[in-house]
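Incident log, support desk, overnight shift.

02:14 A customer reports that sequence design results differ from what the structure should imply. Their input is reproduced verbatim below. On-call engineer (initials T.W.) acknowledged and began investigating.
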C-alpha cells in the first residue's frame, strides 16, 4: 500500500468532520453529502488499520487502554450521528428518512456529533508519534517542563472558552440548538479548533510518555 494512503484518508476524515460541524454555512444538501462521505472514510480508516485490533490483547499500558476506549466511544458516536442523520435526511437519502421523528432525533444528532468531535480529538492526540512519522520527524519533540505546562494551560483555557461559547453542555444534554448563521465561517472553525485543543494535547502527552509502544 502506498505510504500516502493512510494519512490522506485520516486527513480527509478530520477535515470533513470539522466542516460537518458548520451546517449553517454548508447548506443542508452539502452537509448530508459530506456526512455520507465521512461514513465511507470512517469505514476505510478501520479497514486500513484492521491489524490494530489483532494486537489489542497484547497491550496493557495507559495509551492502549485509552485508544481502545476512544475507539469504542467514537464508533458509538459515529453510528449515532449516521443513524439520526438518515432519519432526518431531506437530500441524500430521503427515502429512508422519518420526518415525524425529526424533532426527537435532531438534538441527539448534535449530542453524538459534539461528543464524537471531542473523542476524535483525543484519538488524534494519542497518535502523535504516528503523525510525526508521517511528517518525517524523528525523536521526541523538544520542550521544557515549563513549556509543556504553558501549552496545557493555554489549551485548557481555549477549550473552556470554546465550550461555553458554543454551548456544548446544552448540546451534549440533547437540548435543541441551531447554527449561528451570523458568525463568519473562519471564526466558527476557530471556535471548534479551540474546543478540541485540550483533548489533542492530553492525548499527545500520553502518547509521547508511553515508551516502547508501536503506533497503530
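02:41 Re-run completed on a clean worker. Output:
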Amino acid at each position: 500500500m502506498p505510504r500516502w494512503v493512510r494519512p490522506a484518508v485520516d486527513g480527509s476524515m478530520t477535515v470533513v468532520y470539522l466542516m460537518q460541524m458548520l451546517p449553517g454555512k454548508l447548506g443542508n444538501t452539502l452537509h448530508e453529502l459530506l456526512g455520507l462521505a465521512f461514513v465511507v472514510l470512517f469505514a476505510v480508516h478501520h479497514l486500513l488499520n484492521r491489524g490494530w485490533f489483532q494486537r489489542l490483547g497484547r497491550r496493557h499500558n495507559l495509551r492502549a487502554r485509552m485508544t481502545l476506549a476512544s475507539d469504542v466511544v467514537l464508533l458509538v458516536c459515529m453510528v449515532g450521528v449516521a443513524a439520526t442523520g438518515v432519519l432526518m435526511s431531506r437530500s441524500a437519502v430521503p427515502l429512508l428518512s422519518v420526518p415525524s421523528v425529526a424533532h426527537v432525533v435532531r438534538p441527539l444528532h448534535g449530542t453524538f456529533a459534539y461528543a464524537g468531535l471531542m473523542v476524535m480529538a483525543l484519538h488524534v492526540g494519542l497518535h502523535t508519534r504516528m503523525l510525526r512519522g508521517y511528517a518525517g520527524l524523528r525523536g521526541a519533540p523538544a520542550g521544557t517542563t515549563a513549556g509543556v505546562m504553558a501549552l496545557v494551560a493555554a489549551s485548557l483555557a481555549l477549550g473552556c472558552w470554546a465550550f461555553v461559547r458554543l454551548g456544548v453542555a446544552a448540546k451534549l444534554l440533547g437540548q435543541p440548538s441551531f447554527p449561528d448563521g451570523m458568525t463568519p465561517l473562519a471564526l466558527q472553525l476557530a471556535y471548534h479548533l479551540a474546543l478540541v485543543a485540550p483533548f489533542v494535547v492530553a492525548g499527545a502527552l500520553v502518547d509521547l510518555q508511553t515508551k516502547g509502544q508501536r503506533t497503530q
